């Protein structure tokens, strides 16, 4: 429907623009949004012919002398010499499942858990202990510490779901936890031993030794923490004591 | 054996069931055998079943269905708030509320205080026993 003049002007503009850019222009990037807005899922606003024009196929063709540029077909790779017919043909046509594109996000931190909160551990080796929350790691797990000299809980990762957050907070402004991430806590892979009796018994006797680095990191994190703890009366005893339920105490009625 | 707290106009009662649970109200009128009209300074006047009320010892002097202003003046004159808070029933409720609002840390501090108190009492007792035995 457009006049020939309009078409020709647009073509010239499109061809001459790379030669003469009147002002600094944005670098050409691949277009991400579709030129055909959806009215309803499955129905676009513009017809095929309109889209042909919008995409500028006519301009690309004109640029390349009347035909849309295409690569020559690749020479067919020679078929592998021994290609046996398959032993098994499935009786029914089974649909392939749609690939899962879901990317799990790190767990959302509860509003009641902020750096310095005292948490109560509900499961695991340190069940019942009251610990200090330091930060949330990129995997979603919480980084906590006893402190170690107060209640024996080292720098450790714990899942949010196995924790009760109390409303008691400790000042952790003096603590630097930047160096800790999930990689720091990753277990070392045990070398797979060959399946022989002697090596099996040898492997069992190796005991795990805590690297010196871990002990030093623990001290570095704990010293400012302990200073903040000593500033509050009864706090050291509180963190050293385990959480217990007594007869008649109803957890759903407790205010933490 | 005879009743001491009567349902009468001006009787202060405690709501023991329902939306207004725990509120102190004044009976301002009796509607029928089961229901009363109650009012409180910070509440819209409304009906309530007698079964939902626990009568207290406090009574104030008001006409039947007084205006809100009159009610508040009468309550001030009778000093209902202080009488209630100093009564053993009122004090018990206040303590219950405080205990329910205790933090985990607060509960720990209470436990420590109780242990200290118990220890002091036992030490005194032992001292007295020793003195008595001697």
UniProtKB/TrEMBL annotation, chain A:
One of its GO terms (molecular function) is structural constituent of ribosome. The lineage of its organism: Eukaryota, Viridiplantae, Streptophyta, Embryophyta, Tracheophyta. GO terms for biological process: cytoplasmic translation; ribosomal large subunit assembly. Belongs to the eukaryotic ribosomal protein eL6 family. PANTHER family: 60S RIBOSOMAL PROTEIN L6, LARGE RIBOSOMAL SUBUNIT PROTEIN EL6. Residues 31-77 form the Large ribosomal subunit protein uL6 N-terminal domain. GO terms for cellular component: cytosolic large ribosomal subunit. CDD domains: KOW_RPL6. The keyword Transferase does not apply. This is Large ribosomal subunit protein uL6 N-terminal domain-containing protein. Pfam families: Ribosomal_L6e, Ribosomal_L6e_N. InterPro entries: 60S_ribosomal_eL6 (IPR000915), Ribosomal_eL6_KOW (IPR041997), Ribosomal_uL6_N (IPR005568).
Automatic annotation (TrEMBL), chain B:
This is Large ribosomal subunit protein eL14 domain-containing protein. Keywords: Ribonucleoprotein, Ribosomal protein. The keyword Ribonucleoprotein applies. GO terms for molecular function: mRNA binding; structural constituent of ribosome. Residues 45-117 form the Large ribosomal subunit protein eL14 domain. Signal peptide: none annotated. It holds the Pfam family Ribosomal_L14e. It comes from Zingiber officinale (Ginger). One of its GO terms (cellular component) is cytosolic large ribosomal subunit. The keyword Ribosomal protein applies. GO terms for biological process: ribosomal large subunit biogenesis; translation. Belongs to the eukaryotic ribosomal protein eL14 family.
């Amino acid at each position: 429907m457009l006049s020939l003049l309009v078409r020709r002007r647009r073509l010239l503009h499109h061809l001459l623009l790379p030669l003469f850019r009147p002002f600094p222009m944005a670098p050409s990037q691949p277009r991400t949004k579709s030129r055909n807005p959806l009215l309803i899922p499955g129905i676009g606003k513009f017809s095929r012919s309109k889209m042909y024009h919008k995409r500028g196929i006519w301009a690309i063709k004109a640029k390349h002398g009347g035909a849309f540029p295409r690569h020559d077909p690749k020479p067919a790779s020679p078929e592998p010499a021994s290609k046996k017919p398959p032993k098994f043909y499935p009786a029914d046509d089974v649909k392939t499942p749609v690939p899962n594109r879901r990317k799990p996000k790190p767990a959302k931190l509860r509003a009641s858990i902020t750096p310095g909160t005292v948490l109560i551990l509900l499961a695991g080796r340190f069940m019942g202990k009251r610990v200090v929350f330091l930060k949330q790691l990129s995997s979603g797990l919480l980084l906590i510490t006893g402190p170690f000299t107060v209640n024996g809980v080292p720098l450790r990762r714990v899942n949010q779901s196995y924790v009760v957050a109390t409303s008691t907070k400790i000042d952790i402004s003096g603590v630097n936890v930047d160096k800790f991430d999930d990689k720091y806590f990753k277990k070392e892979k045990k070398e797979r031993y060959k399946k022989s009796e002697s090596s099996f018994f040898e492997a069992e006797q190796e005991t795990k030794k805590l690297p010196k680095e871990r002990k030093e990191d623990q001290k570095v994190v704990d010293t400012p923490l302990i200073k903040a703890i000593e500033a509050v009366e009864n706090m050291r005893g509180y963190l050293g004591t385990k959480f217990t339920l007594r007869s008649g105490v109803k957890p759903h009625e407790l205010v933490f | 054996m005879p009743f001491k707290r009567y349902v009468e106009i001006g009787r202060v009662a405690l709501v023991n069931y329902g939306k207004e649970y725990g509120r102190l109200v004044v009976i301002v009128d009796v509607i029928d055998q089961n229901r009363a009209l109650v009012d409180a300074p910070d509440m819209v006047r409304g009906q309530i079943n007698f079964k939902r009320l626990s009568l207290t010892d406090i009574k104030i002097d008001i006409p039947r269905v007084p205006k809100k202003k009159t009610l508040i003046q009468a309550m001030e004159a009778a000093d209902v708030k202080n009488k209630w808070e100093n009564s053993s029933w009122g004090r018990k409720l206040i303590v219950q509320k405080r205990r329910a609002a205790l933090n985990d840390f607060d509960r720990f501090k209470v436990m420590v205080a109780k242990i200290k108190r118990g220890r002091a009492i036992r030490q005194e007792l032992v001292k007295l026993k020793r003195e008595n035995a001697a």
